[in-house]
Structures are given as structure tokens and as C-alpha cells.
Amino acid sequence: MKKIALLLYTVIVLVLAASCDRRAEYLTASGAMLGTTFQATGDITDCTAQELYRAIMQIDAEAKASMSIFDSTSLLSRINRGETDSLDEHIIYNLRLAERFSRLSEGHYDVTVKPLVDTWGFAGHEAERTPNLDSLLQFVGYRRVHIRDGRLVKDDPRVQLDFNSIA
């Protein structure tokens, strides 16, 4: 899983580097992104460290607006509340990637775990003392969501997604 994340960040940095327009130099950009830290270092053509940092922060803002469960205005938060079923490219990509991991792990990896995450007190919620897991598990299962024509189809409207483990 860490190898995939590292590969994804490497690809992002390389794509960003290709879009910059200054002379080649050895660059380092670091900071906070998506609830963790990053450091991008290397020989990058036609870019300054500041431009690289700004480009990474732009990706961070776009990812948060799409997939943050901490931002009530994000697309994913609105999807989880049942306000929309429209998907953007980020959610579609991550949902398809998550489905592959779910199939490979025979369902042990699952992005529909948000009700459990909330109940156990993760992601800014207070833990329930005696959660009724059986009642929550009826809304968990990667096969309960599908993409159809750019829209999210849920088997039950109470199914919720959490991409913190993959996005």
C-alpha cells in the first residue's frame, strides 16, 4: 500500500515538474498535504521550488474539495449525506482503485467503512460506548456501490464512503 502511495506521489511530482517553465535545478519542496506531510526532491526541469510547492498545494486543495470527509462542503461529504450522486474524476478514480483492492483482498479492504470509522471515534467523531455493529454492517460492503454514467449508485442511501486510506 505504501509503495502504491509513493508511486502515485512520484507520478504527481513528475507531472507537475513537466508543467513548470524555468531552468533545470535541484529542487526540494516540503509541507503538509492531505493530512500528512510530503517532501519532493530532485532534478526538475524548468521549475522553481516555489512553483513546485504551489502546484502541490493546488492538488491538495482540489483533492480536499473532492474527497475530504472533514470538509462538510466537499463533494464526498455531500454524496455521503445523500445531497448528490454526481462524481468527479478523483472520486471515480479512487472508487475504481478501491474496488480492485477490495476484490484482491476478498473484501478485507473496503471504502464503505465510514459508519464504522465514525462509531469507533475516528475522523473527528466521539466513540460510541456500545456500538451496535450488526446494525452498521448492513451499510458496509464494497459491492453496495457502483458507478453508472458518472453517478454513484448505492444499494442503500445510508452507505457512506471514506477515501482516507486510499486518496
Give me some keywords for this one.
6 helices; elongated; alpha+beta; 167 residues; 42% helix
Taking strands numbered 1, 2, ... along the chain, how are they ordered across the largest sheet?
Answer: 1-2
Give the fraction of residues assigned to helices. 40-55%
What is the distance, rounded to the nearest whole angstrom, between the alpha carbons of the first and last residues? Answer: 11 Å
Dominant shape: elongated
Poorly predicted residue ranges = none
Number of helices: 6
How many individual β-strands? 4
Taking all Cα atoms into account, the compactness measure Rg is: 18 Å
Mean pLDDT: 84
Main sheet properties: 2 strands, antiparallel
Q: How much of the sequence is in beta strands?
A: 15-25%
- Element pattern in H and E: HEEHHHHHEE
The helix-and-strand class reads: alpha+beta
